[in-house]
Amino acid sequence: MNDFQLLADELSSLRNEEDGRRFIQENHRDAQFQYFFEFLNHKAEEKGLPLAKIVANSRINRNYVYNITSGIKKMPGRDKIIALCIAAEISFDELNEALMLGGKQTINPHDARDVWIVICINRKISDVLRVNIFLEEKNCAPLNI
Q1: Is the dihedral of CA 34, 100, 59, 124 positive or negative?
Q2: pLDDT per residue over 53-100, tens digit each?
């Protein structure tokens, strides 16, 4: 079980103000990132990935990616976030963090398409074209990039 799920399970058991204060005190951390683009830029730098490689692997229009990474486009669509995260070679937990920062639904374990996407991430497939081919083979909609 990942950290996010553990926290979600603990949140579901909170019943009163004392529980709420305790949870906040134990789990508070200053938000490192306010927007998805900050997170993506940080992960790319952390992994030593040039933006050109992320652009190429995401298969998203270069100008659109630069608008995202420069902060001009702060709220890209869910599929664009997923594609950029795949191209940036991020983990499952990092993908969920990116989706939350982008104001999008996190990975749904009951959605077959999301499950196949996670399998691609766990296999470290970083080319969105390969992910889309895999999704189509599983009769799922490809990432809309």
Answers
A1: positive
A2: 999 999 999 999 999 999 999 899 999 999 999 999 999 999 999 999
SS3 52: helix
DSSP for 75-104, written as a single string: S--HHHHHHHHHHTT--HHHHHHHHHHTT-
CA distance 81 to 83: 5
Q: What is the pTM of this model?
A: 0.81
What is the rounded distance in angstroms from the CA atom of residue 121 to the CA atom of residue 85? Answer: 9
- 33, 71 in Cβ contact below 8 A? no
Q: Largest alpha-carbon pair distance within the chain? A: 50
**CA distance from start to end of the chain:** 30
Let me know: does 131 contact 86? Beta carbons within 8 Å. yes
Q: Which conformational region is residue 52 in: left (phi greater than 0), alpha (psi within -120 to 50 degrees), or beta?
A: alpha
Contact 44, 54 (CB under 8 A): yes
Give the whole-angstrom CA distance, residue 141 versus residue 131: 11
Residues 6+ apart with CB under 8 A from 57: 86, 87, 126, 127, 128
